[in-house]
Amino acid sequence: MEISLYGSKSLYIKGKNAKVWFDPRKDDLKQDYKIVVFEKHEDNFLGLDTGEKVAIWGPGEYEVAGVEINVSKTGNGLMAILNFDEVKIGWISTDTIDLSDKKKERLAECDVLIVKSVGDINNIWDLVKGLGVNYLIITDLSDGNKKKLLDMADMEEAAITETLKLEKSTLPEVMEVVILQQK
After folding, report:
1. Which top CATH class is 2-180?
2. Each residue of 45-89: pLDDT tens digit?
3. Superkingdom of the source (predicted)?
4. Angle between helices 143-152 and 121-128 (to 10 degrees)
C-alpha cells in the first residue's frame, strides 16, 4: 500500500485492488481510482462522472472493491475507517477534535491515522498520542507546526517522503510520525 499527499490535504491511497482519494482536487482525479471520500457533500463540486466509481460524503457503512468503509459524523466533519490490504486506516476531518470514547476506541484499532490539521496542534497531539497507531500523518501543517509536532513526538527528525509505503507485516512497533511531501 502507498499513501501520498497532493496539495496540502488531498490524500491518495493506492492498495493492491483499490485506489482511494480523500478530499481530492479536480485535477487529482485524472489518476485511476475506485473510491473518493469528501469531507462535505458541498465539496463534490467536481462534477464526477462516477461510472463504476463510488463517491462518499456522508455517514454510513460501505463495501466497495473489497474495501470496508465506515464513515461517521464528528463535529462538523467526518471520521472514516477503511480496512483493506489487511491495513486499517483512520481519517479525521473536522475542526472539533473532541471525540467520544467509542470513536477513540475505533481509532485506536487503526494502523495508520490521518488527521487534517485544523485548530491547535497541541489539541491534535493530545488526541492521538495515546491511541497506539503505528503511523500518524497530519496534513496541511505549517513548517512551524511540523517542527512542533516532531518535538512533541520526541522525534528529532522525520524523513520527509513523497510516499509512505507499508504492509501489515512491516508496521513499526511504536508510533512514527510521517511528514508527506506534497506532490
Report:
1. alpha beta
2. 455 555 667 878 788 999 988 899 999 988 778 899 999 899 999
3. Bacteria
4. 30
